[in-house]
């Protein structure tokens, strides 16, 4: 009776999904020429009208040494119900993405897809053996899989007694066994009722002489193709060393006088960058608030816990304004909304991370084109860091080749010195120092200003005008506290939940906004999650999802 109830529960749970994979059969063939062919039979049941499926296959990996390792995949054939079907091929975040289906045609019910592809570099040598460590059923499918089966064919003449095999099933990290058994010279295994997030991983080892892997020269060419940056350090060293010889520190600041108004033509993000020569998430937050002050967006708090001390999220609403944003702020607007009118900060995770380097580059370029810096600060820092690393490595190698500990130590120490100076090497011009004096004067005013005698309307304008700069200078709460008793309600561009409004509370909430922005801007997008990091399925290191391949897909 218990088994019948469990079966009914499983069936009812699967029915909650609008589509499911009723049958997923994978056949893999290890060829003696050193490559692997894969044939996937995926039968999908659609409960509603869809165009087809996405198939996402991880093909790029990063090894613990930092080396990038890419599979070479050749797509041979894609069919739907035995006939040709439109396929759009693209690359995204280390995945080969196949959009299978006709955008002008919809399907419903069961559709049987067949995907055939050939892989090079999936076989790795370990001593006298060659291993295939693969996820034939990936862990990223967004629909349940009712039945799954795997077959692995080995090259002709391989003795099964010389073959080691293992398998795992479940979520990524699971060590639940997946049985592979010999049947008519083929390794076979099957599983049922895999939920989204669950998959199958296999490991097969066979004698190295059974396959002819590509030679060391081909491997070296593949390495260079995957790791083109390996040739950059020497070029950077030569260029940055020359720059070092002809560049010095920034001119002296001179005396600083308080400044009471916004610097003309200089936004808060630009001002914050001039102070510390780097773009950080505090500058991004200052840019968001400055856009709100200029009327380009509204900021609203989103609460889930009525008793919470700070909002769980923030929503940004794009508006039209006649006040022009800076070049950086225009780029920030585009990055925040990406064509939409509303965005939650939580929705920008992974996406804003990808935009941040471009935004930073735009800001650095803008300050450099204004002649505030002799060279792009970010590139200067990167150049010196690269030069330092190369010098340290050269010291180790030079000391070994010359059999001189002193030579190696001197070169390596030189590299460490370069690394130590990298942070302070961006050099401002005389024009840049003039503007920096204004910025530091504004920072001093914000930290020391006495505004308690201002009239209400003047205080309100003054508070909003300089608030973004206070954020950029990390003086938000200091600036907000100065207006306690002067302001009775939040700015029009900010919608929040305040028991009794006080500027201090707004400063506290803007701190939460900055933390949310930091999370969105620093959360990296997913990497190819096949899980493989150069390890083996054997020796206790294997787990479900740990091999190459796998990935997942979804309907569209």
Briefly say what this structure is.
Helix content is 35%, strand content 28%.
Folded structure, characterized:
With 556 residues, this protein is α+β, with helices and mostly antiparallel strands. 35% of the residues lie in helices and 28% in strands. It has helices at 2-14, 216-226, 232-246, 268-276, 281-293, 327-337, 351-369, 377-402, 405-421, 430-448, 456-472, 476-481, 503-522; strands at 19-30, 35-50, 52-58, 60-62, 68-70, 72-80, 83-84, 87-92, 95-101, 107-120, 123-126, 129-137, 140-141, 145-153, 164-171, 176-177, 181-183, 186-194, 198-207, 297-302, 313-318, 342-344, 494-495, 552-555. The strands form 5 sheets. Strands 7-6-10-2-1-14-18-17 form an 8-stranded mixed sheet, with no helix packed on it. A 5-stranded mixed sheet has the order 8-9-3-24-13, with no helix packed on it. The chain has a 5-stranded antiparallel sheet with strand order 11-12-19-15-16, with no helix packed on it. A hairpin with a 4-residue loop joins β15 and β16 (176-177). α4 packs antiparallel against α5 and α4 crosses α11 (456-472). The longest helix has 26 residues, at 377-402. Residues 1-16 and 230-236 have low confidence and may be disordered.
